[in-house]
Structure formats: C-alpha cells, structure tokens
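fold-stage: in
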Amino acid sequence: MKQNSLLKHLFLAIASLVMLYPLLWMLSSSFKPESIIFNDLSLWPSQFTFENYPNGWQALRIDFSIFYKNSVIVAVFSVIGNLIACAFTAYAFARLEFNFKRFWFALMMMTLMLPYHVVLIPQYILFLKLGWVNTYYPLIVPKFLAQEAFFIFLMVQFFKQLPRELDESAMMDGCSVFRIFFKIIVPLSTPAFGTAAIFSFYWTWEDFFGPLIYLNDIEKYTVPLALRAFVSAEDLSFYGESFAMSILSLIPVFIFFIIFQRFIVHGIAMSGIKG
C-alpha cells in the first residue's frame, strides 16, 4: 500500500515538473544573456545578468508601467462589472419568479456555447458606430451588462444552496427584494464572489484578442499587447527582455490568486460545479 502511494506521488511530482518546466525555464532565461538563452536549456543559468529587467522595462518607446496601469484599469473595472451585473442577474434567476424564467435561463446558458468569434464582427461594428474603438469601453462596458454567463451560472448554483427560509423571514420583517439581496444574499456569498473575482481578473489580465481588436495606440496597450511588441515585424526579437517582462506580468495574477484562493474551493463546492 505504501509502495503504491509512493509511486503515485513520484508520478505526480514528475508530471508537475514536466508541466512547470516551461515556466521555470522562462524564469531562468530572464536572467541569462541574450546570446546563450537558446543554447542553455538548463534551469540554472551558466551566466547571470539582471539587465533584462531594467532594459525590458524601458525597451519600448512607452514605459512598461503605463501598460501595467492600463491592464489594471481594464481588469479592476471588469471584475467590478462582472460581480455587480452577474450577481443581480443570478439573484433574479435563483430567488425571484417572473414570466418565462426557464426560457431566459436556457437562452443565457446557450450563450456559453457561442464562440466569441461569432459575435466579434457585429460587436465591432456596433462599437465602431458608437465611437468606442481605440478606447477601453468595449473591454469594460459589456462586463456591466452581465456578459459572462459562466459567472451567472456559478452564482445561481450558489444562491440556490442558501435556505429560502432566510428570504421568507426577512420578508415577514418587511425587507424588500433589494434589501434581502444586500443584507442577506451578498454577505453569505463571499466564496462565490471570490471565485468569480479570481477568474474574472485572470481572464481579463491575460486577454490578448480583445485589446488587439479594439486598441490601436501603443499608449493604450495592455500588458499582453505590450509583450507582443517585443517581437518585431523583421523577426528581430528581444527574448531575454520579453521573458523578464513576462515574469513580471505574472506577479499581479499570483498576488490576486493568493488573496482570494481560499474562496475557490468553497465557492465551487457550494455551487455544485465540478470538473
């Protein structure tokens, strides 16, 4: 029995190392001189240099802190929009009664199976006519309109786990629907909000396609677009500086995950979503 357990843990450790090797190699390569990056595949550099970090920070004609600021603006407003809009929508589906509720819920779930590329052109034409292209509005405003069906579904499942007697007791005390939502549902749903916040931040921070479509000026680029700028049209790439900035771009994701990770397991378990 112990031998089987040992083999299982050994296999998992090797599989983990294989999966982590590209990330660890990128971290190692960010400290290597440009000339030896692809000649040295070890995880411990034979030559150390820290120049890739300051050079990468100033490599483009815009300081990299500007790209961080742009990404933070888009990510923070997207998280806020998703939490507010999806929570209200989920509350309606989970606790309120209205005509054709099942139909609207099924329609909302169908959007999960709709590829983003299907609605890309109509959305672009709409935002172009609104004069929103080359602004952050196409990346932020849809989040305040309950665009993310996955978060609505997650919150619906979580809200359904809360006893309905709480609503009934509150109504007997004279609470309105909105008061029940803010005073009872929201305080009891922090795991669901935390889970939605983590995924929303992560998906927005790493989003490359949306900013690529809607942002034209380099001053408005987010971090993923800025990383792409390290690869020039002449195929002259600055890999060391690119790897260094890629490592720095992961730091906010790790920090956000560490802050909210305790909500993930509880939120997914309570909402009944399993892999």
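fold-stage: in (second)
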Amino acid sequence: MNLSRFLAVFKARNIEFFRDKSSLGWNLFFPVLLLVGMSLIFSGDGRSAYKVGIISEQDQVLGHAFTQTRFIDFINYQGLDEAKAKLNRHALDLLVDFDNKQYWINELSSKSYLVEKIFLSEQQDFQRLVTIGKSIRYVDWVLPGVLGMNMMFSCLFGVGYVIVRYRKNSVLKRLKATPLSAFEFVSAQLLSRLFIVMFMSSVVYLGCNFLFDFFMLGSYWDLLVIGALGGFSLISLGLLVACRSKSEELIGGLLNMASWPMMLLSGVWFSLEGAPEPLKVLADFLPLTHLVAGARKVITEGATLADISYHVNILLLMSALFLLLGSYFFSWNTER
C-alpha cells in the first residue's frame, strides 16, 4: 500500500465533503433536530408503559390509588363497546369499570397480563372478564404498520436516490434535450415505483400469510386500494423531496427527516391512544398515518372504503399536493 496515494485520496474525499455546504450543514443540523423533536414528543415524567381505559361516571375515581400509578396512561371512555373494541385491538392494555367493579383483559397481550398484576395489587374485589369474539393477535395488529413502513422506505428512498443519481450523472440533463416534460418524467417514475412497491408488498403479504394465517375481516380489494393510495402519496413525497438536490448525502438526510417522524408517530409499532392532542394533530399530517390506520381498520374491523373515506380523501389530497409541488419545483440538472 502506497501511503502517499492513500493520503491523497483521504484528503480529497474530506475536502469534497466539507466543501459541500448543504451536506455539511445537514449532517450538523439533523441530529440536533432529531434530539429536539424526541425531547418534545417524549417530554414529561417519562413515556408511559401501559394504557388503561376507565369506565366510570364518578369523578372521585381519579383519586383512586390505582389511577395514581406512575407510567400508566388512564383514558376515560363513555361507551363500553368502544373501549372493549380498543382493548381487543391492542390499543388498550386493560379496561376497568369502577362503577360495576369489573375489569377486562386481552389474554393475547403480554402488556395486559402485566398491568393486570399491578391492578390486582391495589384491588381484589373486581370481577375479571376477558374480551369476547375472535381475538386479534399482536402480529395481526402490527401487520399493516410493518407493511406500511416497508412501503415508506421503498417509496421514499427508491425514488429519491434514483432521481438524485440521474441528476448527478447528467442523465436528466440529456433527457431535458428530448421532448419529455418534467410532468411526464415524474409521472412515469411514480407509476413504475408504485407497481414495484405493490407487487413486492403483495408477495410479502401472501408469503407471510402462509406462516401466520393473518386475521382479515374486510375486503382484500379495499386493502389493495388503500395500500395503492398510500404508496402513491409516499412516492409523491419522495419526488418532492428529491425535486432539486444533486447531493446524495443531503438527500439522505432529507429522506431521513421525512421518514423518522412517520416511523415514530404513524402507529406502526404502538397506538397513539391517550397521546397528547398536539402529537395526534402532527401525526395527521403524515401520509403513513392514514395508510396504516386505513389498512388496520379494513383488516381488524372489516371497514369498507366508505368507512375509511377520511383516510382515503386525505391521501388523495396529499398525493395531489406533493405531485404538483414536485413537478413545479423539479429541476433537470441544477441545484438552486
């Protein structure tokens, strides 16, 4: 190994990085932004470990010893059926009716088992009940989140990096000399990625279904439609993020900034039931939230497209906005 040649390449690569002000700035800015965001989201006495639904018409129940337990979120419900449905879908870990001295658990949930032990350490005279109907396993509940997260990474990074590479290698510059318009190029990229994402997601779902025999109450057609709309919206977002940059390091940071909030706040791994209202409002602005929520309702509640029309309309609106902005700001060969 020739040390001088090694040091020359080492020096050249470092100079290349530090001269790229956008990448340098982003590498400094992104960790700080992530820490600030995480501290705001999970600020307070610490993230709660369990979520307990409460049915009671008496205000004094809030002064009960069990409801003073730290690291447990207590959520009031007016309707018993609604609360039991959330317990069955792993949105709650325990449901307590203080007026009738009854409590319900989900026997397929490890969190439900543990929080029941805490509850019984405070109370012994409550009647124990379990949710009825076909129970939903955690793997059934988390399935839409895992598939949605996989689609998100494929849509954002699969499109963003390709366009930046095309721009960096002057492929876009040569395409600009053809009659191809920016809208035609962006639309073709979008539909191509959508076909790939839907095909791969379908293969993964069908393959895993043989192993896990997933719970399915709704229509596979409705699931396909909400999946395609979610994929369309995520690809449009990827096109918007990559519409001008030609730096792979910068686009990596921007795509991480777009994907991390969705991974944490879109209900992929845990429900936002009982979360602060501003956090829920923020999650509503993320396309993955509506993809996961819509697919989860189709799978676990048997919802139709009419039932999830709110999520469908939001995804359509986001897709149109991202695509129009991406086409308007699209640059063939320059970063401005």
